[in-house]
Amino acid sequence: MILELVLAGILTLLFTRVAAKIRTGAAPKGAFANLFESMILFVRDQIARPAIDSHDHHDSHDHHDDHAHDDHADAGHSHGHVAVAAHAVREHHDGDRFVPLLLTLFFFVLGCNLLGMVPWAGSPTASFSVTLALAGVTFATVVVAGMAKFGFLGFFGNQVPSMDLPLPLAILLKPMIFLIEMLGLLIKHGILAVRLLANMVAGHLVLLGIMGLITTAATYSMGMWATVTGISVVSCTLFSVLELFVAFLQAYIFTFLSALFIGASVHQH
């Protein structure tokens, strides 16, 4: 918990500074501003919008573009460019309202994972209570966003896929499908917590096992101890590089799956 509070303070300081630079509307300058802005745009453009945006919106966008091209051919280049530019200003993305939440999840999970690379610190995401709480945030967002879109009863009704069934079969099958879907909803978020936990704990256990070989070899001979120590140190270095990659990868996977679950809750099945 102390590590999480420290991380929360660091993120608050970092992104207060980032927000101050973005608020001016000026182009990002320097490694600091470009690093974080590129990561923010990645979460927005490659996670939130593809996973949560309505497909109907994209279809209408393509349909409008076709009309824009027709107008361009009929009325000249200037008129077509003005129509496309005006549409770009009016363009709306359903996923943008969830971007602050997804950014918070991404950077918090990433920070917790990276703390595991710091000697004597430990990774908060190697605790099931932490990953379960993070998955709980996603689950609460799914339920609240779905109910806000479809209503209380509409959200639960939306869990059953639309099927053209005769009335007797519908009465028999739809309650069973509803129970299966609700159980699946709980299982999906439970797996979201276990997936992050397992990947972070597994890396730490591998490093611990490799370093434990040094102690075991010391009980045999000095020559074996020196050989095993050299191999273990090199192996731990390589695995640490892999752990660094996994820290970023698992933050991305957790955020992407959260966006997929939220997107499924705010669109009709």
* Number of continuous helical runs: 9
Which spans of ≥5 residues are poorly predicted at pLDDT below 50?
57-64, 66-73, 75-90
Strand content: under 5%
Helical content stands at: over 70%
Ends apart, CA distance between termini: 39 Å
Broad shape:
flat
Helix vs. strand class: mainly alpha
- Largest sheet properties: none
Q: Would you list the SSEs in sequence order as H and E? A: HHHHHHHHH
What is the gyration radius calculated from CA atoms?
A: 25 Å
Q: Could you tell me the number of beta strands?
A: 0
Mean of pLDDT: 83
What distinguishing features does this structure have?
about 270 residues; about 0% strand
Description:
By secondary structure, the chain is mostly helical. The chain has a domain at 97-265. It has 9 helices and no strands. The chain has helices spanning 2-23, 30-52, 55-75, 77-90, 99-115, 128-150, 152-157, 167-218, 222-265. The longest helix has 52 residues, at 167-218. The radius of gyration is 25 Å and the shape is flat. The relative contact order is 0.11.
Topology:
Elements: H1 2-23, H2 30-52, H3 55-75, H4 77-90, H5 99-115, H6 128-150, H7 152-157, H8 167-218, H9 222-265
Helix pairs in contact: 1-5, 2-5, 2-9, 3-4, 5-9, 6-8, 6-9, 8-9
Give a summary of the structure in a few sentences.
The protein has a domain at 97-265. The chain has 9 helices and no strands.
